[in-house]
Specification:
This protein has 374 residues and is α/β, with parallel strands linked by helices. It is built from 13 helices and 14 strands. The chain binds S-adenosyl-L-homocysteine, iron/sulfur cluster and FE3-S4 cluster.
Length: 374
């Protein structure tokens, strides 16, 4: 029996798919090379932008022919997109051949749903799961091993769906993280460990006693073995000096920070509920550059947030010029149902968003070219 997994979205979702693969292998499935030879196809979805959801609808629709050929084929859709009740129901209604539609927190029960398919179609969306539950991962990222250190997000940036589909921030116990990393090191095939969380800088705030993220970093680096340590994503409002110092001091930590700015305009940052200003952001960047020479810095930007004027976009443009990132991701704002920003007046036309994204990306290219030359 073969499985085939299609993953959308962020690194955390890629890692989630490693969990799904682990579960399926325990059930006796092995990895297939394509959809055509699979006995079970799993779509692990993302809800961050509309485009990601549209692709899932298209790709799931295309499976109808496979289902016709193989009556026993099981098709499952899970992840952030299907954690939203309306979307999950719409998928079920649109595609009568879907067998399993479950949310982000149902994945540990995947074996149960597969068993139940014999009795009929499965649609279930659980609330928040147990982050410390240990499940076997089938690690798929070569020399890099992902390690989840927390789930969920408390920040409620006004454009973002993540807090709604991933629940509130919950940190894993440090003990369990260290145990997992020791096991990874002892396997001997991983050179890099990447810690994952939507906002890793607030790791440990919810534990008793609370643990600062920098302590976790130092404790991991103190483990014996040769490896590099990396982490994502950092939120500028929580990137404290002790974390910058840890990156500077610990040889094992990669000199790299992904620090999404989202916008260079203070009015837009406020509307986004990001809780820092342009000035504060630049101050952090300067601190990083001072303490960690040659640190690679990357960022995410959203253009065309509701009411963003041309001048405000220019402020984002000039922030990219000022910081001179190693690379950036630039996204056109995509309204997500249920978020505060989706209800704001002054939504921007796609044409304008497109123009602004292209301007930012050309600037990135220009900077990269100049820096490469240097
Ligand atoms: N937790 C991380 C990023 C999560 S999502 C952080 O806070 O930085 C990854 C990126 O997707 C975000 O940084 C943002 O730039 C983008 N994004 C999130 N919601 C979006 C939306 N509604 N439209 C367009 N881009 C979005
Ligand atoms: Fe979304 Fe903001 Fe949380 Fe990142 S910090 S996941 S952008 S709400
Ligand atoms: Fe990641 Fe997309 Fe979910 S970015 S957390 S898979 S909404």
């Amino acid at each position: 029996m073969k499985y085939y997994i299609v993953t959308y979205g962020c690194q955390m979702n890629v890692h989630e798919s490693e969990k799904i693969a682990g579960i399926l292998e325990r059930l006796g499935y092995s990895e297939g090379t394509c959809r055509e030879e699979a006995d079970i196809i799993v779509f692990n979805t993302c809800a961050i932008r509309e485009g990601a959801e549209d692709r899932v609808f298209g790709n799931v629709g295309n499976l109808k022919r496979l289902k016709k050929k193989n009556k026993n084929l099981i098709i499952a859709v899970c992840g952030c997109m299907t954690q939203k009740e309306q979307t999950a129901k719409k998928l079920m209604d649109t595609f009568p051949f879907l067998d399993i539609v479950i949310g982000t927190f149902n994945v540990p029960k995947l074996g149960y749903y597969i068993e139940q398919v014999k009795k009929g179609r499965q649609l279930e969306l659980l609330e928040e799961g147990d982050i410390d539950e240990v499940l076997p991962y089938k690690r798929t990222s070569g020399e890099n091993a992902w390690v989840n250190i927390m789930q969920g997000c408390n920040n409620f940036c006004t454009y973002c769906i993540v807090p709604y589909v991933k629940g509130r921030e919950k940190s894993r116990n440090e003990e369990n993280i260290l145990k997992e990393i020791k096991e990874i090191i002892s396997e001997g095939k991983y050179k890099k460990i990447t810690l994952l969380g939507q906002n890793v800088n607030s790791y440990g705030h919810d534990l008793t006693p609370a643990i600062p993220f920098s302590k976790l970093l130092h404790d991991i680096c103190a483990l014996e073995g040769e490896f590099t340590l990396s982490f994502m994503t950092s939120h500028p409002k929580d990137l404290t000096d002790d974390v910058i110092d840890a990156i500077a001091k610990e040889d094992k930590i990669e000199k790299y920070i992904h620090l999404p700015a989202q916008s260079g305009s203070n009015r837009i940052l406020k509307l986004m509920n990001r809780k820092y200003t342009r000035e504060k952001y630049i101050e952090i960047i300067n601190k990083i550059r001072e303490k960690i020479p040659n640190c690679r810095i990357t960022s995410d930007f959203i253009v065309g947030f509701p009411t963003e004027s041309e001048e405000e976009f220019e402020e984002t443009y000039s922030l990219v010029e000022t910081v001179r990132y190693d690379s950036i991701f630039a996204f056109m704002y995509s309204p997500r149902e249920g978020t505060v920003a989706s209800k704001m007046e002054g939504q921007i036309e796609d044409e304008v968003k497109n123009e602004r994204v292209n301007k930012l990306l050309s600037l990135e290219k220009k900077i990269q070219k100049e820096d490469n030359k240097r």
